[in-house]
Design brief:
There is one protein chain. With 248 residues, this protein is α+β, with helices and mostly antiparallel strands. It contains five helices and 13 strands. An eight-stranded antiparallel barrel has the order 3-5-6-8-9-10-12-13. It has a two-stranded antiparallel sheet with strand order 1-2. The chain starts with a helix and ends in a 22-residue tail after the last helix.
Length: 248
């Protein structure tokens, strides 16, 4: 008569051991929200990539560089999105559309990337007929660099710029990123451009371009929250940076 109670006790003891050894059920993380049985990942405020929906940029060279180019017989012409060089020389500068990209708050400064339309600029040595085609501009806002493709070769870093403060560059009401900054040519890019043109116009560390950017951001995003803009932020473009001249 005691065999049955002993067997029942053994089963209960074994069940207790198995339950204790089983892993605890996974708990939802702070970044996971559950709704109707489905999960969605959320991003922390100020750590969100806000998509760029378009916009434009104006690239201008400083007068001193223009004078150096002219003195050495180098002319400037625009290249369209089909890769064709304009038959008319430019007084300098070009306007490019912004194809895509994203903007982030990177340590309180503008981060992300801007990809411009495939148009560009051609530098033409009138004496030697050598041409340097610069197309495919990309701005790495997180690193403060502007890169491009030279003569359909490998992408090179053309220059660097000082990254502006995020609060001073974002206009939440207009859902726009506005930047006004100077580009300094890298030594490697200066050497490549000089070699392509057979000239000595470019010097590493010297001014290359002045860029004004007006990029349209996704209007559905709560920009103050997504980019952690805080309160009392200065208006976009009011970052203490001034234009250093244009190409005319």
């Amino acid at each position: 008569m005691r065999a049955r109670p002993l067997a029942t006790a053994a089963v209960l003891a074994l069940t207790t051991v198995l339950l204790a050894a089983a892993p605890a059920p996974a708990r939802p993380s702070a970044a996971t929200a559950v709704s109707d049985g489905r999960s969605a990942t959320t991003r922390l405020a100020g750590n969100t990539e806000v998509p760029v929906r378009g916009g434009s940029a104006r690239f201008d060279a400083p007068p001193a560089l223009l004078a150096a180019l002219k003195a050495r017989g180098v002319a400037v012409a625009e290249i369209d999105t089909q890769g064709q060089i304009s038959p008319h020389y430019s007084t300098g500068g070009m306007s490019l559309g912004i194809r895509s990209g994203a903007v982030t708050n990177s340590g309180g400064k503008v981060g992300g990337e801007l990809r411009f339309t495939r148009a560009g600029i051609a530098l033409i040595n009138i004496k030697t007929k050598k041409v340097a085609k610069v197309t495919g501009f990309v701005g790495n806002l997180s690193q403060g660099t502007l890169s491009a493709v030279l003569d359909r070769g490998a992408r090179i870093t053309l220059g660097t710029f000082t990254r502006p403060r995020i609060n001073a560059s974002i206009d939440p009401e207009a859902a726009a990123l506005r930047m006004n900054t100077g580009i300094t040519v890298t030594a490697a890019a200066a050497a490549r451009l000089n070699a392509a043109l057979g000239t000595t116009c470019f010097r590493g560390g010297g001014p290359l371009l002045h860029v004004r950017i007006d990029a349209s951001l996704d209007p559905s995003v709560d920009l103050p929250t997504a980019l952690n803009l805080g309160h009392g932020a200065p208006r976009a473009g009011d970052d203490g940076q001034e234009a250093r001249g244009s190409w005319g």
